Backbone:
């Protein structure tokens, strides 16, 4: 019989790609969703509407232990991917309380219910490079000290520690992914990459004349979400649970991302980007770049999508949605590559 997986956060970017992956591998896929999602499927289940008939959805509230307990008792999964979270760092400054409540208690509820009902179920926790925050070293590895810079980052450190402690205290197969930023055409519009690519499309369509952005000098290690969910699955296929950095080992500034996105649409970014100091964060994470050597060696995972391909896919998709067809051959675009080697500073070439 095929294996059964439960995904929390199945309606999100990662949940949608992970569902596709697990369905393609023959899993019986279940998802925990908020009740409102079932009330308004056309809007809230958009990312999974194409596989809606291949998955099973259960209404539940992450904030309520009895509710999470009930869904786990109903599904009895072999694998659980806990992805649900208030995932927007910026919003966590506006509402620290609900971010901490959803992200910390939600994770605790999932782990405690699994321990109670299906202790042999393998668990994945969606940890984040935001946990490194004010980075202690470059590049960041599984051994780099955490120094979170937001309620979101703090909530993810707590989730990481909870997951590790359930592994150590109760012998559960519980693993932490430390995933660096990963994007796709399904990324939420509030995150900077999608804000840029959708902004480019609106400008090309004549529906906007500029794009307001905050800190253009922040650096991120951006990969592709479809590629990163494979690492989640691989972690749960190992004999032993563990913690893994998942990253490309390359870092780029927001400015470089924007320049490339505008270039692919035949536009000069300098003419359209407007600096907006309101969009700066009270505490910023300036530089993220991961060393995925452990994931490569133990899981056989590696990043398979270049930044150029990622940006192109996102710009092309957002422009197509506006009725604009782009031809990649018409535009040449290049960016500097800054690659991280273990224990070294970031090289520039
Ligand atoms: P996303 O697109 O924002 O999806 C978040 C998911 O969590 C959605 O399904 C959302 O459901 C659900 N959710 C939020 N609050 C909830 C609540 N109170 N109760 C139940 N469900 C709730 O995020 P993502 O990019 O797919 O990321 C998935 C996970 O990986 C998150 O935990 C995120 O923090 C973590 N992560 C992401 C990245 C990245 O770069 N994408 C990197 C590292 C870690 P609704 O549709 O109902 O809102
Ligand atoms: N969102 C946003 N909007 N970010 C901006 C803007 C803007 O207008 N202008 C500049 N930025 C900068 C932010 O200050 C930040 O340094 C960077 O762009 C990336 O911001 P986001 O795309 O919002 O992502 P994030 O890095 O804060 O968080 C994402 O990645 C984490 C992993 O490192 C989220 O997906 C988190 O859930 C995830 O854990």
Residues:
């Amino acid at each position: 019989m095929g294996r059964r997986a439960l995904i929390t956060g199945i309606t999100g970017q990662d949940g949608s790609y992970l569902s596709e992956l697990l369905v393609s591998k023959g899993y019986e896929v279940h998802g925990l969703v908020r009740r409102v999602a079932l009330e308004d499927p056309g809007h809230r289940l958009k990312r999974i509407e194409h596989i809606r008939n291949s998955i099973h959805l259960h209404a539940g509230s992450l904030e309520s232990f009895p509710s999470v307990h009930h869904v786990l008792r109903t599904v009895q999964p072999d694998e659980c991917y806990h992805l649900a979270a208030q995932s927007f760092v910026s919003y966590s400054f506006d509402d620290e309380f609900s971010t901490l409540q959803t992200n910390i208690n939600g994770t605790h509820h999932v782990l405690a219910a699994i321990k109670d009902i299906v202790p042999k179920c393998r668990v994945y926790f969606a940890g984040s490079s935001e946990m490194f925050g004010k980075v202690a070293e470059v590049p960041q590895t599984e051994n780099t000290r955490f120094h979170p810079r937001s309620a979101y980052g703090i909530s993810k450190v707590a989730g990481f520690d909870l997951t590790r402690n359930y592994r150590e205290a109760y012998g559960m197969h519980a693993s932490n992914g430390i995933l660096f930023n990963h994007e796709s055409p399904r990324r939420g519009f509030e995150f900077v990459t999608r804000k840029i690519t959708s902004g480019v499309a609106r400008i090309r369509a004549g529906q906007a004349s500029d794009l307001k952005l905050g800190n253009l000098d922040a650096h991120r290690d951006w990969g592709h979400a479809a590629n990163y969910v494979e690492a989640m699955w691989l972690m749960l296929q190992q004999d032993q649970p563990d913690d893994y950095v998942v990253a490309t080992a390359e870092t780029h500034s927001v400015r470089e991302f924007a320049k490339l996105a505008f270039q692919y649409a035949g536009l000069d970014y300098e003419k359209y980007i407007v600096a907006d100091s309101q969009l700066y964060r009270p505490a910023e994470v300036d530089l993220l770049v991961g060393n995925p050597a452990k994931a490569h060696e133990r899981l056989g995972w590696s990043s398979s999508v270049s930044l150029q391909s990622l940006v192109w896919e996102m710009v092309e998709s957002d422009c197509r949605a506006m009725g604009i067809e782009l031809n990649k051959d018409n535009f040449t675009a290049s960016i500097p590559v800054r690659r991280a080697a273990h224990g070294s500073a970031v090289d520039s070439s």
